[in-house]
Amino acid sequence: MWFLGDTLSIKVYQALAAALEMRPERRVILSDSGNFPSDLYMAEGLIKALGRGDELRVVAPDEVTDAITDEVAVTLLTEVDYRNGRLHDMGEITRRAQDAGAVTIWDLAHSAGALPVDLAGCGADFAVGCTYKYLNGGPGAPAFIYVAPRHATRASPALSGWLGHAAPFAFEAGYRPGKGIERMRVGTPPVLAMAAL
Ligand SMILES: Cc1ncc(COP(=O)(O)O)c(C=O)c1O
């Protein structure tokens, strides 16, 4: 299930917060040194906000598979390296991570529009990406988030903005998450950018 809106950094934060919540007994976020810096920075920021001692473990891209241990709560990886085009094997890493009990997040910023992506086929848990690279939306075009249908009704959006509320125009005092992927909407969408996309 997809939702389009906000920036990719925001969507990384939401996916990571939701994924960590699904593995409360684990404290390691596994990423690699080929990842785009904002993904790593957002993880650092979330770790600080949570304040419970989570660890961002960054390994070399070719060491990712071996670094998937039963300590890992979440793998946060960008499928295609923005520097050199190196491609992770999404199906194989997803399988290894899930076998070890980890939740997978794939950043598709450099994949979407450039190569076929089969999230459902490889059983990925979460994915995020932008539409301003190979989808040609132009700078500022909205990002996207994918939540596997099996998680969509219980994934926590973390950034609980009014347009992700179950009844945004009821203007209730308290937050209730929208049904399914709708809860991943944070605020007012960039309508002109979406129209251009
Ligand atoms: C892989 C990746 N992740 C995150 C970002 C950050 O995206 P945004 O500026 O939309 O927050 C980018 C931007 O180029 C990116 O390439």
From TrEMBL:
<dbReference type="GO" id="GO:0019441">
    <property type="term" value="P:L-tryptophan catabolic process to kynurenine"/>
</dbReference>
<dbReference type="GO" id="GO:0009435">
    <property type="term" value="P:NAD+ biosynthetic process"/>
</dbReference>
<dbReference type="GO" id="GO:0030429">
    <property type="term" value="F:kynureninase activity"/>
</dbReference>
<feature type="domain" description="Aminotransferase class V">
    <location>
        <begin position="54"/>
        <end position="196"/>
    </location>
</feature>
<dbReference type="GO" id="GO:0030170">
    <property type="term" value="F:pyridoxal phosphate binding"/>
</dbReference>
<dbReference type="InterPro" id="IPR015424">
    <property type="entry name" value="PyrdxlP-dep_Trfase"/>
</dbReference>
<dbReference type="GO" id="GO:0043420">
    <property type="term" value="P:anthranilate metabolic process"/>
</dbReference>
<dbReference type="GO" id="GO:0005737">
    <property type="term" value="C:cytoplasm"/>
</dbReference>
<dbReference type="InterPro" id="IPR000192">
    <property type="entry name" value="Aminotrans_V_dom"/>
</dbReference>
<dbReference type="InterPro" id="IPR010111">
    <property type="entry name" value="Kynureninase"/>
</dbReference>
<dbReference type="Pfam" id="PF00266">
    <property type="entry name" value="Aminotran_5"/>
</dbReference>
<dbReference type="InterPro" id="IPR015421">
    <property type="entry name" value="PyrdxlP-dep_Trfase_major"/>
</dbReference>
<keyword id="KW-0663">Pyridoxal phosphate</keyword>
<protein>
    <submittedName>
        <fullName>Kynureninase</fullName>
    </submittedName>
</protein>
